[in-house]
Amino acid sequence: NLCNGITRLLMTNLSVNPSENIIACFSGDAIIYFEEKEIKVIKLTRKNIILNLISILKIIKRENISTLHSHHRYFAFIATLISTFIKIKTKVAVHSKVYGFKFFSYKNDEIITDSNAIKIHLNSYFKIPLHNIRVEYPIFTKNSIYCKNEIDLSFLNDKINLLFIGRFCEEKGFDILLQAFEEISKLNSNLRLIVCGEGELQSLLDKYIQKGLNIFHQKPIPDLSSFYKIADVVILPSRVDPYPLVMLETIHFQKKLIASNVDGIPEGLNNYKLATLIPPNNKEELISAINNSLK
């Protein structure tokens, strides 16, 4: 999906040599983007792992694929099964904290993760030896998806813009952000909250919009450059977040950032001078940080 950081990271990296890659996935609004870039997309089914196994085996044989690189535990498991039938290298990139299914998880040849925070989680929960896990920090490459399809947002320049980009869910602290914005709006009518994304808390967002709060909702799009450019402060109030792409994008556009002090966020900020770290799941601290950022 376009609001997913992993998808956007793939969009930047795979666009360099699109013909050399094939994507196998279930569904999502980013498929059209990849197809337009002439990246082959194979659509699988969520209901039948055997059919998916057969489909991927056929792709490997037809395209002479040497490496299966998974970005989700389900596909990492399929890759492990395939490697028992044919000789192929399997890699998995672990982008989040997951639990359960210990026996079936992460049996791949290479295990890569975004941050030391996730490396420690894999070691402590799944008992994977630390020397078997390699940390590779995502590389932000400003190429084809940035500043190519910019939008005229001059009509939003009349207010101070707070920007949230990502999935509308509790994991990302979206509910806390809405609560904080409602409170702070009572004292400062010159604020606007811009939210770019979608998710399971869409109905909660609709309720706050119906209350008359100054919230602008943008559905997911490939190029978010225009929104970063008009943002006064980017807010990342996550309860869990291994190494968010929004953090890297904010640093690139040199914007103020308010972010939760969790997982790989402090690791990735690397003393970024425009960042303020706050405790997660804390509306009062978020309100205080927003007020301080506007001084």
Please provide a brief summary of the model.
This protein is α/β, with parallel strands linked by helices. It has 11 helices and 12 strands.
What do you see in this structure?
Helix 5 links the parallel strand 5 and strand 6 (133-135). With 295 residues, the protein is α/β, with parallel strands linked by helices. The strands form three sheets. It has a six-stranded parallel beta sheet, with helices on both faces. The chain has a four-stranded parallel beta sheet with strand order 3-4-5-6, covered by helices on one side. Helices cover 35% and strands 18% of the residues. The longest helix has 15 residues, at 49-63.
Q: Using DSSP, what is the number of strands? A: 12
Counting H and I runs of at least 4 residues, what is the number of helices? 11
The span between the termini is: 36 Å
Structural class: alpha/beta
Q: Choose one word for the global shape.
A: globular
Q: Which range does the strand content fall in?
A: 15-25%
Unreliable stretches (pLDDT < 50, length at least 5) are none
Helix content: 25-40%
Oligomeric state of the chains present here = single chain
Measured on Cα atoms, how large is the radius of gyration? 20 Å
The biggest sheet, with number of strands, parallel, antiparallel or mixed sense and barrel status, is:
6 strands, parallel
- Overall mean pLDDT: 89
Order of helices and strands: HEHEHEHEEHEEHEHEHEHEHEH
**Major β-sheet strand ordering:** 9-8-7-10-11-12
